[in-house]
Structure formats: structure tokens, C-alpha cells
Amino acid sequence: MKNLKVTTSILAMAFIGLTAASCKDAKKENMNEDGHHMEASHDNSDGHHDEETTHDNSDGHHDGDSTATSRDIAVSTQKNTATTPIIDAYIQIKNALVADNKNNAAKGATALLKAFSNFDMTKLTGETRNEYMEIAESAKEQAEHIIENPIDHQREHFETLSTDINDLITLLGTEKTLFQDYCPMKKAIWLSETKEINNPFMGSEMPTCGTVKKQIN
Where are the domains of the chain? Predict the structure, then answer.
């Protein structure tokens, strides 16, 4: 029994070491010789990531619509205040996941559903309206799953939600100054109100893992 405990401890320490090394290696890839951050070799500036996180969907939950990762949206530079309640609710979810707080993440998702419900679509026309409806449908689906699920699944749906909110800002603009961050462990982006890295995908396990890809506004 004593030998089993020692073996288990060694394996756990090895896993943590490998995980931390992966994040360090990813950060090194984003640094040039002067020590400044560089973009990854692939362009994620449009908020789309390379691969979806795979998880067991046997519980009836599923990832967001795959079309959410292939939207071709013209960039809006409008200082739009209409998107603020949606972004604020998204940030609430993000901060809750950083703090490993499942209940607050669910509260943020509830606020997000309310923000989308209150959004005035009458000012949107044509293709912009169609794009918004597609984004909103996916984002609301992710929010519903975040409300209902444990934190590991919340984080999986937050990945798709982050792409949705990034696309919403690309489409309609925002008055806020935001930072698009990148998690090398998940190969996914998220949005933050601060330049400091606080990783919602890793939480307290690896809170500073990631890089700032760009500033919005």
C-alpha cells in the first residue's frame, strides 16, 4: 500500500511537470529574440481556433454548431454600446471560470441569456442581421449548457462561446477595450477586460498560461 501511494504521487508530479512544460514551450514559441510576443505560426486573429476540444457527448450535451468556427465576417470599427451587456455577462462567466466557481459561471450564463433577450435587433438589416442571429443562436446554446453542467463541461462550452462573442464584436463592434488571449493548452482564444493573463480554461491549475494575441480598441 505504501509503495502504491509513492507511485501515485510520482505519477501526479510527473503529469503536473509535463503540463507546465507544455505551457512554457508554447510561450517560448510566441517570443522573439528580443523577448517580445509573436503571433503563433497560424493566424487566430479572427478568433477561430484550429481544433475543437473533444469530449464524451454520451450525456446528451454537445459542442456548439461547427459553423461557428468558419464565419467570414467583415470587421466593424463601430464603438457600439449595444453589445456591452452581452460582453459584460461573458466577462462574468470568464472570471468565474478563472476562479473555478461553477455557480458564478452559471449566473453569468443566465445574465448572458437575458442580455441577448434584451438586445434590439430592429437596427440590424440584411446580412448583418443574419450573421447576428447565427451567432446569438450558438451563444445562447453554449450559455444554456454552462448553466446546466459541471465546471469541466462549462469550460468546453466556454470555448465555443468565446468564438461566438469574438465574432459578435467583429460584426457589430464594441465600446470596450478588450484583449484577445490564446491558450496553447486548449488551442483556443478567450476575451479579457485586462491585459494580465488569467486563463479561464485552466483556472487555478495554470492561471497565467497563455499569451495576448491582440488588443481590441
Answer: 2-54+61-216
